[in-house]
Amino acid sequence: MKAAPRRVLANASRLCYNYNMPSFPKVTFFFHAAVAAAALLCAGCSAGSTSRAMTANSKTYLKTQNNLQKILQNESLSQETRYAVVNQIASNMRAVKDYNSLVLFLTGWVESHRDDQYNAYWLLMAADAYLENDAEPVAEYYLERIIKNYGDLMVKGKSVHFLCLQHLIQISENPTNRIAYFNQLISRFPDQVNITELYYRLALEYEKLGDWTQALKTFTLFLNREDAPTLQLQDIPNAYLTARQLVDFGNSSKNWTFETLEELVSAVQGAISSYDYKKLDSYKSKVNFFAMSWRQDESDAKAQDSFSMRSYMRGNRIRYEKELDPISSPTSAYLRTWGWSSYLNVWYFYFRKVNFPVDPDIHGRWEWAGIYYGEKL
């Protein structure tokens, strides 16, 4: 199973950059620039008038920023007033997309005012500026710095650490780091995330590291969640079935597997030739074995079948192809058989290579995993 490393999480754990930042000024430089540019297309508008409008707005912006900087130099400002001024300066820079100045201002402020209780928030704004410019490694550095070096902070009802973890989950490509982020979200913010989904994605990160013991444990936690069977993940179809198969297989004896595909096919063909239904039944996978039409999905509950071959072998002349079907591949194979019944005469036996890195002795062996009814579509 492979996770899309930077997919957006569902429900309460959905990630986004437009968190509840303070409001930007309604009138911005780029707004006026766009209006001025459009005006050039209108009859009667001159290039000179457009230029004057843009220049006037630039001067207004610089004057506003200078006035705010002067206010900020007043050392007697209260914490609340100082926060409001710093926030307004930064918001104005963000509004005109002056990200270089925004980062320099905020990081400089943090370094020179280490006692500011809002420093975690200022660094979060700086990280967001880097994200806006696709500088994700630098943004990740600042987000990590906030988590490790600053206590959590509530701004406008939102946890700064929670926002940082959401961003980090989205941009980080390091499985070890992502495991830490998922665990923090689950343990620290259980009421704000979809724990069922996070368990599944956490298990996938353990898989990437090759820590199959933890992966199985986490998949089990996922399966034990009440809403696991109904969880829909856009980037991972049949998440529940995949986890269920892996965990059930891990807890089984696995004594029905064969070293090679040739051995498995030979054994099945021999059992059919001798009409030995007991042997055929013993060769079937004891976990997740299915019997279905080509149009059905393996996740369909009706596809899971534990019937005995005896009912279909008695009184019938069963035959099989000597060679595997051409649609077979290095990891899956199909054997066409027929004579089972007048209603469903043709059955394709489906064999697959076992994908179970947890146990090197089992990984790579072959199992008879199911039956497809009818001719191929």
Helix/strand order, N-terminal first: HHHHHHEEHHHHHHHEHEEEE
Task: Please bin the fraction of helical residues.
Answer: 40-55%
| Content of β-strand | 5-15%
Regarding quaternary structure, what we see is single chain
Per DSSP, the total helix count is: 14
Question: Any low-confidence stretches, pLDDT <50, length ≥5?
Answer: 1-54
N-end to C-end Cα span:
27 Å
Shape: elongated
Strand arrangement within the widest β-sheet reads 3-7-6-5-4
Counted beta strands: 7
The structural class is: alpha+beta
Rounded Rg: 31 Å
Largest pleated sheet: 5 strands, mixed
Mean pLDDT: 85
Q: What characteristics describe this protein?
A:
alpha+beta, 377 residues, 14 helices, two-stranded antiparallel sheet, elongated
Characterization of the model:
By secondary structure, the chain is α+β, with helices and mostly antiparallel strands. The chain is built from 14 helices and 7 strands. The strands form 2 sheets. A 5-stranded mixed sheet has the order 3-7-6-5-4, covered by helices on one side. Strands 1-2 form a two-stranded antiparallel sheet. Strand 1 and strand 2 (158-159) form a beta hairpin. Helix 5 runs antiparallel to helix 6 (136-149) and helix 6 runs antiparallel to helix 7 (160-171). Mean pLDDT is 85; it is low at 1-54.
